[in-house]
């Protein structure tokens, strides 16, 4: 089954939205297979956002991601990469639909609460960047037959 990397950014942690955010993914029917609270190093932040390193917002983004604890997660399920991006909503919370995490809780692009991998290749890369193999748990919830045919 497909896996994605999601991270609740320092603003989501500071605003006490960890439970709310996890709850949305959990009740959708996705399975949490990796979870930890991380004080992100500059090296990890720069690697994670490597694709944006030439962009003007890159230094501020790295400062922000390293400014406080981040909740790093791996979620599993059919189509979880694209579906999690929908649940998260558009990058700028002012453009994100109500009902999405960013649409319901955010007002600014630089404080958009959560990261989600945007494609299978980035999901694979980000999962291995943030987690060791032994930190991921292979399990299936007993409700699986009630989620999938
Ligand atoms: P993310 O990678 O954090 O999940 O966000 P995303 O895919 O929706 O957006 P992306 O284009 O990958 O941008 C990464 C993060 O950079 C910040 N950003 N700031 N000031 C700006 O114009 C600007 N543009 C992007 C955002 O925090 C965005 O989440
Ligand atoms: Mg992105």
Automatic annotation (TrEMBL):
Signal peptide: none
The keyword Acyltransferase appears for this protein: no
Location in the cell: Cytoplasm
Cofactors, names only: Mg(2+)
Keyword line: ATP-binding, Cytoplasm, Kinase, Magnesium, Metal-binding, Nucleotide metabolism, Nucleotide-binding, Phosphoprotein, Transferase
EC number: 2.7.4.6
The protein's role, per its UniProt record: Major role in the synthesis of nucleoside triphosphates other than ATP. The ATP gamma phosphate is transferred to the NDP beta phosphate via a ping-pong mechanism, using a phosphorylated active-site intermediate. (Microbial infection) Catalyzes the phosphorylation of dZDP to dZTP, when the bacterium is infected by a phage that produces the substrate for the synthesis of dZTP (2- amino-2'-deoxyadenosine 5'-triphosphate), which is then used by the phage as a DNA polymerase substrate.
Subunit details: Homotetramer.
Family: Belongs to the NDK family.
UniProt-recorded name of the protein: Nucleoside diphosphate kinase
Source organism per UniProt: Floridaenema fluviatile BLCC-F154
Record lineage: Bacteria, Bacillati, Cyanobacteriota, Cyanophyceae, Oscillatoriophycideae
Record gene name: ndk
């Amino acid at each position: 089954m497909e896996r994605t990397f999601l991270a609740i950014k320092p603003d989501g942690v500071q605003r006490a939205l960890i439970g709310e955010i996890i709850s949305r993914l959990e009740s959708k029917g996705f399975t949490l297979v990796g979870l930890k609270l991380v004080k992100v190093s500059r090296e990890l932040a720069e690697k994670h956002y490597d694709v944006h390193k030439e962009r003007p917002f890159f230094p501020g983004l790295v400062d922000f991601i390293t400014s406080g604890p981040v909740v790093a997660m791996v979620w599993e399920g059919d189509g979880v990469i694209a579906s999690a991006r929908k649940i998260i909503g558009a990058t700028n919370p002012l453009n994100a639909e109500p009902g999405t995490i960013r649409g319901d809780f955010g007002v600014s692009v630089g404080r958009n609460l959560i990261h989600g991998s945007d494609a299978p290749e980035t999901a694979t890369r980000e999962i291995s960047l943030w987690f060791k193999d032994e930190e991921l748990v292979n399990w299936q919830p007993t409700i699986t037959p009630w989620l999938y045919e």
